[in-house]
From TrEMBL:
Gene Ontology CC, one term: cytosol
Function: Catalyzes two steps in the biosynthesis of the molybdenum cofactor. In the first step, molybdopterin is adenylated. Subsequently, molybdate is inserted into adenylated molybdopterin and AMP is released.
GO biological process, one term: Mo-molybdopterin cofactor biosynthetic process
Family: Belongs to the MoeA family.
Highest taxon above the source species: Eukaryota
Protein name: MoeA N-terminal and linker domain-containing protein
């Protein structure tokens, strides 16, 4: 199956579950790999907020938002945030 679920391909294999069979002459590209395990649909899929407990503060009020904080907000499924400029 080759449909997408968010950014992760269904039945994608972790690199730990593969073995390199053939590489390019310079060793920089994998030409063929052997898949060592059977993947299951939905395996290793992390849904928004799975790493955070309900009620846990992800980004405290007054925190300057940078790429890490925006990533945390995206991880918990927050599409918008109320912000203001510092005086």
């Amino acid at each position: 199956m080759s449909s997408f679920f968010g950014p992760v391909l269904f039945l994608a294999h972790q690199v730990e579950d593969t073995e390199l069979v053939e590489a390019s002459a310079d060793g920089k590209r994998e030409i063929r790999v052997r898949i060592l395990t059977k993947a299951h649909q939905g395996q290793d899929i992390r849904h928004p907020g799975m790493d955070i407990k309900p009620g846990e503060v992800v980004v405290a009020a007054g925190t300057r938002l940078g790429e890490c904080e925006l990533g945390l907000l995206a991880m918990v499924g927050t599409a918008t945030a109320s912000v203001y400029r510092k005086p």
